[in-house]
Design brief:
Length: about 150
């Protein structure tokens, strides 16, 4: 891998391609229905048992105001590492892990979709697709963290 390449995990959400730096990902799990908890933020789908501990599961569809998660047999849960905390995010499918040349990345334009711009690290031009690069570490605000962990 060349020094100007970053290993990215590319996944689907709301019919679009998204990516994140693979360093933010601990593991990709098959989908399992989370246990619903009362009185949690709307984007928290629930919790699952993960390596003898409780893992909060976040619905990016709800977090980004896309509506409900799409039901799909390809759904996965991506386990994200954030300091000592971990959480899972639900994605429609996982496409691939690939090396992306940093020259293909651009900063996100001001009109960037409906997602709050703080989550978007940039846009990647790959073949026929524009892939939205997410900063998964910034998905949860410090207030969100206080409510979840």
């Amino acid at each position: 891998m060349a020094s100007n390449e970053i290993k990215m995990l590319i996944f689907g959400l709301n019919g679009e391609h998204y990516a994140t730096d693979i360093k933010e990902v601990e593991r990709i799990l098959g989908y399992q229905e989370p246990t619903v908890l009362p009185d949690v933020p709307a984007f928290v789908k629930g919790v699952i048992n993960y390596e003898q501990s409780i893992l909060p599961i976040i619905s990016l569809s709800k977090k980004f105001n896309f509506g409900e998660d799409k039901q799909s047999e390809n759904r996965k849960i991506i386990v994200v590492k954030r300091d000592e905390n971990k959480f899972g995010i639900i994605v429609e499918n996982v496409y691939e892990v690939r090396d992306v040349n940093s020259e293909l990345m651009e900063s996100a334009p001001p009109i960037t979709s409906t997602i709050d711009k703080r989550y978007i690290a940039g846009l990647i031009k790959l073949e026929d697709n524009i892939v939205i690069l997410l900063d998964l570490v910034k998905i949860l605000s410090s207030e969100d963290e206080k409510n979840i962990f």
